[in-house]
Amino acid sequence: MSTRPLIGITAGLNDQKKYQVLNRNFMNAILSQGGLPVTLPPTDDETILRQYVETCDGFLFSGGEDVDPLLFGQYQKPECGSICPVRDAHELSLLKLLVQRKDKPVFGICRGLQVMNIALGGDIYQDLPSEFEGEVIGHRQKQEACYTSHPVAIEDNTLLMAIIGERTLMVNSLHHQAIRHAKTWRISAVSPDGVAEAAEWPEHPFFLGVQWHPEILWQTNEYNASLFKAFVDACRK
């Protein structure tokens, strides 16, 4: 029997910061494709972080709270939601090590995509409806998360295109923050209003983030399942 690759998943904290919080959908999606998920206790201790990097075969940065605007040189605006500085520090410190290594697959979802962008020197919209230049579609859909609400256009010659194999993909949408300026890495999908929906780093074998929530759609949608399959396969290698 082949050994399942060990995949570290970042998690949120509850309001009292006493409990780690992680939607089971993330773990189930990894398990379904042959991975072994573990949640990573938040820390900014570099010794522990380095052991995480050495021990795990890949890393999934999950969705959750808004990111602290101070991390990209801004103060909080009224529209910014709740933040968790402990989680921010943990994830950015871990990403700093992963960017240096370039040998561990990294997959980010929603908040995960945004944190990856900040780690690579970019910034994000604190609130799309109030900050985006131009009219935006509804990125916080009214229907349940298991339904899709808008398409994304996938760029040619990208890792995302290699995985999905289609130019257009219907996705769910549950966010009010998004990539504003991306540095170093490439936007690989956009929504009809031009908002970045995925990005990847060509210098890394697998450093990919998406703005939608494939962990909710994978059971009923082969394209979203393929994202987790490609990620777990990369971790296995």
Describe, in plain words, how this protein is organized in 3D.
The protein has 237 residues and is of the alpha/beta class. The chain has one domain: 3-Layer(aba) Sandwich (Rossmann fold). It is 31% helix and 21% strand. It has helices at 24-32, 46-55, 85-101, 111-119, 128-131, 159-164, 214-217, 222-236, and strands at residues 6-9, 12-13, 20-21, 36-39, 58-61, 106-109, 123-125, 150-154, 168-171, 178-181, 186-190, 196-200, 207-210. The strands form 3 sheets. It has a 9-stranded mixed β-sheet with strand order 4-1-5-6-13-12-11-8-9, sandwiched between helices. The chain has a two-stranded antiparallel sheet with strand order 2-3. It has a two-stranded antiparallel ribbon with strand order 7-10. A hairpin with a 6-residue loop joins strand 2 (12-13) and strand 3 (20-21). Helix 3 (85-101) packs across helix 4 (111-119). The radius of gyration is 16 Å and the shape is globular. It starts with 5 loop residues before the first strand and ends with a helix. The relative contact order is 0.17. The mean pLDDT is 93.
